[in-house]
Design brief:
- The protein has helices at about 25-40, 40-45, 50-70, 75-90, 95-110, 115-125, and strands at about 15, 20-25.
- By secondary structure, the chain is mostly helical.
- It has one domain: Globin-like, CATH 1.10.490.
- It has a two-stranded antiparallel sheet with strand order 1-2.
- Strand 1 (about 15) and strand 2 (about 20-25) form a beta hairpin.
- Helix 1 (about 25-40) crosses helix 3, helix 1 packs across helix 5 (about 95-110) and helix 3 packs across helix 6 (about 115-125).
- The two termini are about 15 Å apart.
Length: about 130
């Protein structure tokens, strides 16, 4: 993973679930806080860019899970793509899987159990080597 902040496609700031627009900022900050509590070494490894990447990638993952719940299946394909990118950058895929589980827990609390289930399935996919 780069020590520069994310570029490319901007991360979503909202998702639409059950015809309501939901802001992601609080949810993403909660996931990031829990993630870095478990993996503080990432803050040292990636410096100032660590939190930016965490928020960016998690926003996309949550969005893909919401799209999947909304009948637009893209989660499995996109998680596989993300895992391949991270693997090429020597990022530990177990940490991606754990981040997806943390995001699932937070989504269950703040957004939707259905979205949480999709994220847990994505974590299983990553751990199985499919991601």
């Amino acid at each position: 993973m780069s020590t520069r902040g994310p570029g490319g496609s901007p991360a979503p700031t909202t998702v639409t679930l059950d015809e309501r627009k939901v802001p992601l900022a609080h949810l993403l900050e909660t996931v990031a806080d829990r993630y870095f509590a478990e993996f503080p070494g990432d803050l040292e490894r990636y410096g100032d860019a660590a939190r930016e990447w965490e928020l960016h990638d998690t926003a996309h993952c949550v969005n893909w899970a919401v799209l999947d719940v909304n009948g637009i299946p893209s989660l499995e394909r996109n998680i596989t793509w993300l895992a391949n990118v991270l693997r090429a950058r020597d990022f530990p895929l177990e940490q991606l899987a754990r981040n997806l589980e943390i995001a699932a827990d937070v989504c269950a609390e703040q957004l939707s159990q259905a979205v949480a289930e999709r994220l847990r399935a994505a974590a299983t996919l990553v751990r199985s080597g499919g991601g």
